[in-house]
């Protein structure tokens, strides 16, 4: 089976707090591959004044695979780790990337509590598992 | 009276089957649809198929809201993400850029049968694994490839007795919708409003250049600000304000203002102490409940799984739901009551949120309503403050006459107040300033004051007096 992925999709990460009221500059974004065949991929980005990263080009399967049912998965998946001092870290797994398509990944960061007596981590809002439909 | 359904500003989604003990998230209606569209179909499909699917997704969701399907059953959400009964929604997922632009264009359009207000219950399925009476997702791809338009694809599945309602009003946002497009050469109130709101957003997003002074004339400075806004928010970067850009600006502006408004509420609670004062539960009321609600409302602005609450001092169902959601999100036992452990956690979370905000955003810039209705004949310091606010606003909005700041509410002040009410589409007794009108005037003044601040890295070339 041919596992090469010659086509490319693009990813931009948008980091903010308070529902978009505050863009977050200087957050560190690490992008890694999630599939067999792209696990060696590793990109690092820092968010700009508007909380956005420069686009990252990422390999994806041929777009032709998505045009009819019954083909193998027509997208590649990637993982993200986002961190910024003073905020809970944020992780994304299984982020789908399609050939020729730009994906925008929103990252709402939550500031750390003032005193972390509990060490409780709001997991469901900081650890995202993405998926695509089974079309 | 609108003859169309009003699009909700936001929607609450249950992250599981209806009866499951899953969390709810509340998000803007366009963001919800962007997520559904990215979760239900492939972005590489032909555009006509994507559009047809999105019309169906919008209508399905609006039907749930219109009929109150879940709320009528006693649930505190509008829709679920269980595909057994509703549509796919993957909380926190990536959004495809092309899908995002289409949704920004049509999020306030929907399908219905002629003669009916109700949004169509637009059922759909993939059409290969599952077939149904309704749109077939894979079928729509074939029809699009045959050259059919979105409307033709939709009538193929839903019948010819189908109309698309375009540009329906959006709750709380649409009272000031301008004639589109606004572009270089446009003038008047709509341009003033655009400039004021862009400037206010630019205070939080310094890559957007300020328009100084805001003069109700759409010139090159305004074009540059619009372009910068469009670049940051994934809109077509053409410097022209159509429906997509305008609505996006309102949503971002609302997120920005929400924090200002919560902060100014906090100033009135300054006398309270954050010390735990005993367990709080439904039925309680008073200043400690108000303080609790204030903290929770602050958390709600930052954490999507915690719903906002009215800061009214009464511990009812809404407060209980917010407490439970907080406990679930932060890993505490979910009781709906506030014991010491929950109180301390809420307070520590709140402190952490406030500390993360630059100080300039936490300082109040306006004075709260003085508690006395102001009208023709009133005199005093409160009138003077009111006049100062209106004068700043009159300098930007050509339809509002300026007035002398003399602390006396005479015919001139009354005329300016009435002009403000008309310019901003406000109902209420003309010329009479109660709490609601005071807050509206103070809000625009805050926009101007904060919007005119130059921040670090701001586009150079002017000084703020």
Architecture blueprint of SSEs:
The complex is a heterodimer of chains A (135) and B (465).
Chain A lengths: L6 E11 L4 E2 L4 E6 L8 E5 L9 E5 L15 E8 L6 E8 L4 E7 L18 E3 L6
Parallel strand pairs in A: 1-8, 7-9
Antiparallel strand pairs in A: 1-2, 1-5, 3-4, 3-6, 6-7
Chain B lengths: L9 E5 L9 E5 H12 L6 H21 L11 E2 L14 E2 H10 L3 E3 L11 E2 L9 E2 H9 L4 H9 L4 E3 L23 H16 L15 H13 L10 H25 L19 H14 L16 H13 L10 H16 L25 H14 L16 H13 L11 H17 L14
Mean pLDDT across all amino acids of chain B: 92
Number of E-type strands of chain B: 8
Helix content of chain B: 40-55%
Provide the gyration radius of chain B in Å. 24 Å
Shape of chain A: elongated
User: What structural category do the secondary elements of chain B indicate?
Assistant: mainly alpha
Helix and strand content put the structural class of chain A at mainly beta
Largest sheet of chain B: 3 strands, mixed
Beta-strand content estimate of chain B: 5-15%
- The quaternary organization reads as heterodimer
The chain pair forming the largest interface, with residue counts per chain, is: A-B, 57 and 58 residues
Distance between the termini of chain A: 21 Å
User: How many individual β-strands of chain A?
Assistant: 9
Percent in helix of chain A: under 10%
What's the main sheet of chain A like? Answer: 5 strands, mixed
Put simply, the count of helices of chain B is: 14
Low-pLDDT residue intervals, each spanning 5 or more residues of chain B: 460-465
The arrangement of helices and strands of chain A along the chain is: EEEEEEEEE
